Amino acid sequence: MKPLLKVMMVLALAFASTFLLLTLTGVLTLEKIQGWLEAARSVNPWLLAALVVALLFSDIVIAVPTLSVMMLSGYFLGALTGTLASFTGLLLAGSAGYWASKRYGNILLFRLVQEPQQRSEAINTFQRHGPVVILLSRALPMLPEVSACLAGLTGMKFLRFLGLWIISILPYSALANYSGSVSSLQNPMPAIYTAIGLCGFFWGSWFLFHRAKSRERRLQTQDLG
């Protein structure tokens, strides 16, 4: 487990560093993103949708605040169009992370985990737990990007990854955009309740998964004893 966690931490720090750099320098803030979306809407709705796709696609590199972007997408574009734009952006981001890591991930893996046995352990660990990590990755910032990269790096079949990724992003996009579409500056509560509900769902799911795995390990230890 430790070799895999080491790779995950390095990937997460890489994504976090780009986000912090752009945020601290003022290049990327939620206020600026909202301003860009408002400006795009005043020009053309299709430009607005393309900007949402581009912002969410760039999340694979610069860790964009995806939930906020999707809620703004629903607010400006409406629930259906916003969901389609958000889903497209996240689908492209996940696919790009998968294929880039499949092509170049071995370089990182060989640098971070030099022992062949530990590399095999890291790959086998993600192959066992990767599906759950992908499905529940929205519980933490940067974890979706990390899980997409690990799927490519560890050789998960693309169609399997794609299916899991779609299951994780489609309802997430739909809920976020719907809550944004029924929210306003005067009544932001639907978006706030949705954000709290999504966080609670994913954290609760992680808790139940961790509890089940801990129980499984205890039973295995008892059997060995």
UniProtKB/TrEMBL annotation:
Supply the alphabetized keyword list. Answer: Cell membrane, Membrane, Transmembrane, Transmembrane helix
Tell me where the signal peptide lies: none
Q: How does it sit in the membrane?
A: Multi-pass membrane protein
Where is it chiefly localized?
A: membrane
According to the entry, every stretch annotated as the VTT domain falls at 64-181
The domain of life is: Bacteria
**Subcellular compartments:** Cell membrane
What residues form the membrane-spanning segments?
45-64, 76-100, 158-178, 190-209
Pfam families, sorted = VTT_dom (PF09335)
Its name, as the record gives it, is VTT domain-containing protein
Q: Which organism was this protein described from?
A: Gilvimarinus algae
